[in-house]
Amino acid sequence: MPLREKLIRALKVLVFLLCLGPADVLTWKAFHDLLGANPVDVITRATGRWTLTFLLITLSITPLRRLFRLPWMIRFRRMLGLFAFFYGSLHLMTYVWLDKFFNVPEMLHDIAKRRFITAGMTAWALMLPLALTSTAGWIRRLGGKRWQKLHYLIYLSAAAGVVHFIWLVKADIRRPLTYGAVLTALLAFRVLVWGMAKARSRAAAQAAHPEIGSSGQLKKQPQ
Amino acid sequence: MLIKKPSDIPSSEITPKPVYVNRRKFLAGAAATSAAVAAGLYLRNAGSQPAATVEASTKLTGIVKSQYSTSEKPTSFKDITNYNNYYEFSTDKYEPNGLSANFRTRPWTVSIEGLVKKPKKLDIDTITKLAPPEERIYRHRCVEGWSMVIPWVGFPLSALIKQAEPLGTAKFVAFETILAPDQMPNQKRGVLEWPYVEGLRMDEAMHPLTILAVGLYDEVLPNVDGAPLRLVVPWKYGFKGIKAIVKVKFVDTMPPITWNMMAPDEYGFYSNVNPNVNHPRWSQAAERRIGDSIFSPKHATLMFNGYGDQVASLYSGMDLRKYY
Description:
The structure holds 2 protein chains of 2 kinds. Chain A has helices at residues 3-31, 39-67, 77-99, 104-113, 115-132, 136-142, 144-151, 153-168, 174-208. Chain A is mainly α. In chain A, helix 1 (3-31) runs antiparallel to helix 2, helix 1 (3-31) packs parallel to helix 3 and helix 5 (115-132) runs antiparallel to helix 8 (153-168). By secondary structure, chain B is of the alpha+beta class. Chain B is globular, with a radius of gyration of 20 Å. Helix content of chain B is 17%, strand content 20%. Chain B contains 9 helices and 12 strands. The A-B interface holds A 21-22, 25, 29-30, 34-43, 46, 49-50, 52-53, 56-57, 60, 63-64, 67, 98, 101, 106, 109-110, 113-116, 167-168, 170-172, 178-179, 181-182, 185-186, 189 and B 33-35, 37-39, 41-42, 45-46, 49-50, 52, 78-79, 82-83, 87, 91, 93-94, 144, 146, 186, 189, 191-192, 262-263, 278, 280-283, 285, 288, 290-291, 294-295, 297-298.
């Protein structure tokens, strides 16, 4: 195994342990009675924030690897995305178990009636197919292009997550807006890259066929 | 003398140890790229934890028991003083304790005004002597779905009202919190409209259950719970219990109240605890009792927070779905 490969694998183990950190801290605090007056509230908020944080970290892999030309970073994306799903599922379990005690009618009522719950459920539901199809086998089965398209759902999931956060806050939405601003920046990067790629391909087409103008129309030939 | 005078420096003057970490400072300069901001959020989360502190305190003496107290087990002093909403200091429920530690509660005057025979400005130390301090162990239900049992020390609001001699035209009582942006950091920002205002109908204000609290657990009311003077109306959601009161005004029309101005469809003037009227964003059918274990189920919320026998008659004939 080349040294570079060994380093990446070691780093993967390290990142994995680091990503488990927040869950470890919560568990440790829960067992040592350090979660304050309302532990369920603390667990709910912490797991919710970590879900959003991991979604944003996952979405920052592509900009980072492009801006700093670090192609190997792509190898961390799946793990980070799965951690977003992991914390999202813990967040959902906190609601289902510790908040609602598996009271299904009440939860259905919540989903239908309370828009912040609707948004949160949507965000989690959109992550589910992504987590399920995160394996190499599923990429093969779906084919790269289709798999890629399916995984664009992460943009919607992250947006629904931010909306969920904004809607649940009573007053002072600075914190959810911080997440919203980061998400906007990360999505703007993609729009920019997409726009530049389009412009480049047009320029390339123009170079190959100089008779086609930048607007795509035929240039007037000089008389 | 009902309250022992502190022999040396009042507790409010003592600067406590730093009780919270300024995470904003910690985060400054974290955002070079959007990814770096994402990393910043990671750090911010890692740094956030409830700061538990207990302040220096002064014992109250001559407290009498009350027939209105519940026999339920009171929530711990630590939880009561480290978990509450005090938006003037922070929108976080763990932070007000540390942020309010240096809040100055002396000198303090309360202005009694409006439709009264004798408008006056009363010193807080005069107010605390209006009536003997009573221990009132009340259930406290927050509109957010959590509850506590709090051993307040206070006296009926009616004692203060009788002093003021309101005119027959006075139908409501309006309360106002101090406006002190130099001491209350969130008053520098537009979190809510400041100062915080609240109100009660005259019969609600005169009800024997309605008290002005000056203490907690036999001690002078901690700053975090609204020192030096706060309202407690146990059959209403907690936000009706306005803190750090500087003005009591008698009026003839329903006064505006802060949370109602902020979100009229979510918070009504009456805001009686009512399990049948849901808050648009959460159910009010059940509540989490602070201090319970993580896995213990919630408690069913009671109509008028369990004080229906005493107060239901105040609202007879009223549609409580309409007047929430």
